[in-house]
Amino acid sequence: MRFLGIDLGTGSLKLSTVDEAGRERATASVAYAIATPHPGWAETSVDTWWRALCDAAAKLPAAERDDVRAIGFSGQMHGVVLTDGHGRAVRPAMLWPDTRALSLLDAWPDPQPNPVAPGMAGPLLRWIMLNEPHTVDATRWALQPKDWLRVALGGAFVTDPSDACATALADPAGVWDHAMLDRLGVPHAWFAPLAPSYASGGVLSDEAARALGLRAGITLATGAADTPCAAFGSGLANDGDALLTTGSGGQIVVLATGEPAAARGLHRYRAATDHWYRMAAMQNVGVALEAVRGWLSYAWTDAYRDAFADDAAPGLTFLPYLTGERSPWLNPSARGGWLGLALGHSRGTMMRAAFEGGAFSLRAGLDAIRRSGVEVTTLRLAGGGSVDARWRQMLADALDVELHAVDCPDAAGRGAAILGGLAGGHWHASDLASLAPATTRVAGPRDDRALAARYARFLDLYARVEDWFPASAAPD
């Protein structure tokens, strides 16, 4: 017996199967690019997602597909997919890095239950209402990415609290804010009813089953947003359990049994279970490192080799804010670059500074969590952007934590698969503790005063250049 998790990410779609004991059995993935038809826009055609799903399914062994009994979903947070009444997209999906709605954030004056970013569904829908009347006329549903995918497979038009609460159109518990919708002039009927992440959200259609090589009629879980799915799949179960995920962005999640207090620069959202979580969400980790790698004409193996071959160059700092930043600065107009470059610096020293800048951006987010009253000394580690041992040690040093890698290749996909098993009735809440994956301690913090001084310089330089890119500025 197998349960399939589909993780619909920003730059790739990943599949994971787990067996009846929660052990991962097979994985497959297909990458794709974000479209930027105009500066500041970030879109993907849903046809791209569908092709990636079919191609990834074809990579799974036939025996794995034959044994799948339920499917769960994990999806990139924020953004929005506008569809007609049958779930067919009426325009490309708008994604979380999109900044076209930056000038429209005045509809969310402080204080808000959570920080509001231009790539959230609320600001994006306000932009649609003002700029694309033809899209408004054609729209019946405003869905989150994973919800569109479930509907495309034959599932119900529903969403879950973990996705709804991150739209800037709902309260922290995920209940739609009808007063906000009225103020924006957005139809209430566009928004799907709520269901638990682990509830059944329909069954796989005959047509989708043929496309994926699966059995028709198997259960589709409602699913959850990718960050809470990764926390769930990584075994976070108790108050204070914490996780670092790195990919295009970086998230630090701390589980809470009750609703956390509001704190500037941090998010408090619903988990995939009935818990809550605090989150520091940093936009520029993998996306910035990938840009630097390309600019310096590195293959990844060479980038790691040269970056960690020598000590850090004194006085060289990289601010990684190429797409603005959320935690802790809440500045979508923030920008980055190297400061302190000299003729004697090499590609390797520039690449190392980029790695260190990414680590420091994560530390700034973690510091905000610590200031909120949560002590974090250990982090579980998940995500494809944190597998190199040298990078892991830099993260442990910069964050001043022990890192324990989760022993599974795709925590979000695993979490989605387990949600499928819950929705199908194979597991119950009492089984979850026994399903937590093993972890391996991979790095611990070292006392490095020079690194601490470079982090202080990093914070000072960001504060100095922040005035060049105020949060109210228009996107590039």
UniProtKB/TrEMBL annotation:
Origin: domain of life = Bacteria
Q: Name one GO biological process term.
A: carbohydrate metabolic process
One MF term from GO for this chain?
A: kinase activity
Q: Which Pfam families match?
A: FGGY_C (PF02782), FGGY_N (PF00370)
> Which positions fall inside the Carbohydrate kinase FGGY N-terminal domain?
4-233
- SUPFAM superfamilies in the cross-refs: Actin-like ATPase domain
Signal peptide start-end: none
Identification of the protein by name: Xylulokinase
